[in-house]
């Protein structure tokens, strides 16, 4: 029996021709199989195909199955798909229809099957191959799994709220960041999670979005974590709609902006401080591009350039404000910075203005770099030191006048001794001149007597005596003249100011001159010896000021020795030596005085400090010596002393300009 009569019978129609059903059966898109169940002990159910339609063969790929058992038409089906056979047997036995989906392993096909029984022991299976749908379902399921994993495992917090504003879903990252379990958030209004100050605005903005009157733009909210910490998030929300297009909720991703907000607050504070510094600093602060155009200046810089507002300076250069004498070297300095050369640090610059004015500034200029390290400009800060320079110049003039006054004082103090030194040779010049006057009178008389033959020329003139003494007298007079000339030259060298700058000088000659002009001061209390380095090259120095330093040291040594020997009437010793010490000329002045007491050693170079009685010392000698050697000659001066045994002052002067001070 075919399936057609069965269909007619089951529908109650009497037309046994079955023409409508045969037409339907032949053209159905679904496959149809009319089968009889066979039950065999120990083998499990099987069935025989009684009739199939064309779609059956098209969908399954099985041919000529009518009259065959399923186990014969589909070998292995009883082993691979026993549940399918049991389902068919159950439908045939009970008459209860079943609809199900199954994968037939042997055919490697998914089927959607509707099975019913027209009579006991028989069943009809109407089926369709649903492999495409199953693939789509699997793809959809995999997509949903991926989206679910993406939602759960995303490194940024995600949450969804329903159309009432209640949290419907949160991901693991949001739980971790807030320190809350998902169950503690789901079902709560999302605004409950933000700080109290922001809850009303949060509720209102979410309400507007859900009503469709708000804009889903990023907003910033401050959430409270479980431990009470405030975390700032930037929230990016998107509307969720249902199948009908109605608003169903909001899905939001949150970006942690806590550190960004902290950094922005810090940056704002730094900008505020920079602004305060720029606005209130009396120093001139400016920024320039690589071509020297001003890009930012503070108010002080604007005022310096004659502008009422800093914006009036932007885009201009130094050439718009200064004379070329200043603008050109300043531009070259900045180009050196742009080329990566050495920065300008603590440089004193003279600014020349178009009206002829000259001002002085203390400047530091540095290069500006972008984040990649490329130099894209310069900045500088300068301070007006015009008044300081004026005071310094006045101070230098005062110091020069003070040193000159001290030199004149020294010359005045030495004048009596120098007069005594000159008096001795002048005295024997005078004595010899008086002797020669008498001798020449005698010679004139001898000459006169020789003209008178009657008189004896040698009767009362000792001619032999005159012959021997006149040359001696002339020699002594020449020696006296030379001595006076030497003293005068030494005095001239000592008292003459000489050049104001350092020039290579024979310091041994300077030392000898100073020793000579001070001889009358030390010769009664000390013997002075020298030991000079014959290989000493010319030493760059200011001769007049070095002479003054040396005179101060000799006079101090003399007074120190005098304090020791005044009771005994004996003599001490002063020794002056020179030697080359590397790149320095070293001059030592030693004495055998009482030494420098330990308690005052730290003060000996202080201005106005003296241990001498009132009227015998100003306390400026060693202070001036220190200023001259250290500041003007870039050298050093120090002392070595042992109480009761004397002191040695050690001067070191650079032999070359630019030599660093020796420690």
Task: Report on this structure.
By secondary structure, the protein is α+β, with helices and mostly antiparallel strands. The chain folds into five domains: about 5-135, PAS domain (Beta-Lactamase, 2-Layer Sandwich), CATH 3.30.450; about 155-260, PAS domain (Beta-Lactamase, 2-Layer Sandwich); about 285-385, PAS domain (Beta-Lactamase, 2-Layer Sandwich); about 390-485; about 495-663, Histidine kinase-like ATPase, C-terminal domain (Heat Shock Protein 90), CATH 3.30.565. It is built from 18 helices and 22 strands. It has a five-stranded antiparallel β-sheet with strand order 2-1-5-4-3. A five-stranded antiparallel β-sheet has the order 7-6-10-9-8, with helices on both faces. Helix 13 (about 385-450) runs antiparallel to helix 14, helix 15 crosses helix 17 (about 545-565) and helix 17 (about 545-565) packs antiparallel against helix 18.
């Amino acid at each position: 029996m075919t399936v057609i009569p069965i269909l007619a019978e089951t529908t109650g129609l009497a037309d046994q021709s079955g023409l409508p059903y045969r037409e339907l059966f032949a053209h159905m898109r679904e496959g149809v199989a009319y089968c009889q169940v066979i039950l065999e002990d120990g083998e499990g159910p099987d069935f025989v195909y009684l009739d199939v339609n064309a779609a059956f063969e098209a969908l399954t790929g099985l041919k000529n199955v009518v009259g065959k058992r399923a186990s014969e038409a589909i070998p292995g089906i009883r082993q691979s798909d026993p549940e399918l056979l049991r389902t068919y047997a159950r439908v045939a036995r009970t008459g209860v229809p079943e609809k199900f989906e199954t994968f037939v392993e042997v055919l490697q096909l998914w089927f959607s099957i509707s099975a019913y029984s027209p009579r006991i022991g028989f069943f009809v299976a109407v089926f369709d191959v649903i492999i495409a749908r199953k693939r789509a379902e699997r793809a959809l399921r995999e997509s949903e799994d991926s989206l679910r994993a993406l939602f759960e495992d995303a490194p940024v917090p995600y949450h969804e709220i329903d159309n009432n504003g209640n949290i419907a879903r949160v991901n693991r990252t949001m739980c971790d960041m807030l320190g809350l379990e998902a169950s503690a958030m789901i079902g709560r209004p999302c605004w409950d999670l933000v700080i109290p100050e922001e809850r009303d605005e949060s509720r209102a903005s979410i309400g507007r979005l859900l009503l469709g009157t708000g804009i889903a733009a990023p907003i910033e909210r401050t959430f409270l974590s479980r431990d009470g910490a405030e975390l700032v998030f930037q929230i990016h929300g998107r509307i969720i709609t249902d199948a009908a297009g109605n608003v169903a909720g909001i899905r939001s991703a949150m970006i942690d902006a806590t550190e960004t907000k902290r950094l922005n607050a810090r940056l704002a504070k730094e900008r505020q401080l920079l602004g305060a510094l720029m606005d209130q600093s009396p120093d001139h602060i400016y920024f320039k591009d690589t071509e020297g155009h001003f890009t930012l200046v503070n108010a002080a810089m604007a005022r310096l350039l004659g502008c009422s507002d800093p914006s009036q300076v932007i885009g201009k250069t130094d050439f718009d404000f200064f004379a070329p004498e200043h603008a050109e070297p300043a531009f070259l300095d900045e180009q050196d910075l742009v080329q990566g050369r050495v920065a300008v640090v603590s440089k004193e610059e003279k600014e020349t203005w178009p009206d002829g004015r000259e001002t002085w500034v203390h400047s530091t200029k540095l290069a500006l770099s972008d984040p990649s390290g490329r130099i894209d400009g310069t900045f500088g800060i300068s301070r007006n030191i015009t008044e300081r320079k004026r005071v310094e110049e006045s101070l230098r003039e005062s110091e020069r006048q003070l040193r000159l006054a001290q030199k004149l004082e020294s010359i005045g103090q030495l004048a009596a001794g120098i007069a005594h030194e000159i008096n001795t040779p002048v005295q024997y010049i005078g004595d010899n001149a008086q002797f020669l006057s008498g001798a020449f009178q005698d010679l004139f008389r001898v000459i006169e007597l020789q003209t008178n033959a009657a008189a004896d020329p040698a009767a009362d003139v000792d001619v032999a005596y005159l012959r021997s003494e006149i040359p001696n007298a002339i020699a002594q007079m020449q020696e006296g003249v030379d001595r006076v000339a030497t003293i005068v030259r030494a005095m001239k060298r000592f008292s003459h100011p000489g050049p104001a700058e350092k020039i290579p000088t024979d310091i041994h000659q300077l030392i000898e001159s100073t020793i000579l002009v001070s001889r009358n001061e030390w010769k009664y209390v000390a013997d002075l010896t020298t030991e000079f380095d014959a290989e000493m090259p010319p030493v760059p120095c200011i001769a007049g000021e070095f002479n003054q330093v040396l005179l101060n040291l000799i006079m101090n040594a003399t007074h120190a020795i005098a304090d020791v020997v005044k009771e005994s009437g004996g003599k001490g010793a002063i020794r002056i030596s020179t030697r080359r010490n590397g790149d320095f000329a070293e001059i030592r002045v030693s004495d055998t005085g009482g030494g420098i007491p330990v308690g005052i050693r730290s003060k000996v170079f202080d201005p106005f400090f003296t241990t001498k009685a009132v009227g015998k010392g100003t306390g400026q000698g060693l202070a001036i010596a220190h200023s001259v050697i250290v500041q003007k000659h870039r050298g050093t001066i120090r002392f070595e002393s042992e109480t009761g045994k004397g002191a040695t002052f050690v001067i070191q002067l650079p032999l070359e300009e630019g030599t660093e001070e020796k420690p």
